[in-house]
Amino acid sequence: MVNLISLVIFGVCIIIAITIHEFSHAFAADQLGDPTPRSQGRLSLNPLHHLDLLGTILLFLVHFGWGKPVEIDRYNLKSPKRDELIIALAGPASNLLLATIISLIARFIGFNSMVAFFFSILVQSNVVLAVFNLIPIPPLDGSKILLALLPPDLSGQWEEAFQKYGYIILLAFLFLPINGSNLANIIMTPALRFVYGILAF
Fold first, then answer.
1. Domain range holding 141?
2. Annotated catalytic sites, by residue?
3. What is the pTM of this model?
4. Rounded to an integer, what distance in angstroms lies between the CA atom of residue 9 and that of residue 46?
């Protein structure tokens, strides 16, 4: 029963984190002049508009999954390079903002153990999702941020390489064993500890 409750709490928290993340991409794109996310129903806090069926199932089975990517049309953006950077940053930034708000609430207001546990998982879910998405490997937001920051000639070369090898690199990053762990854990752990230390949750 305890394991079932923990699984449900984990599922609810990660669904909240994914919904906020994808909604923020959609909201940023809409504010910057691209109506594509709005026309596809993505400008919503309804989780059903943002969840991918297979990605959601895998979240519960292996604690790894994904949401439905927000589609944008860069030709609707006034300054495509700058605006794509803002849109890409909006998702991770919203997760870190939510984690900060929840940690502040939990720090200053007393809760019973179950609510405290829920809040701790909600903070962790948002922080992990933000940090993971900042890794510069496609289709993660970090790759879009990197491309937006690079000079045009170098950006084109990287984008071509990403299209060819991005998913292979991501799979190796996640599942290739290294000293009993994987590259994702090795890279993310210091960043996660740093953020948790700031939040002091």
1. 2-199
2. 22
3. 0.90
4. 18
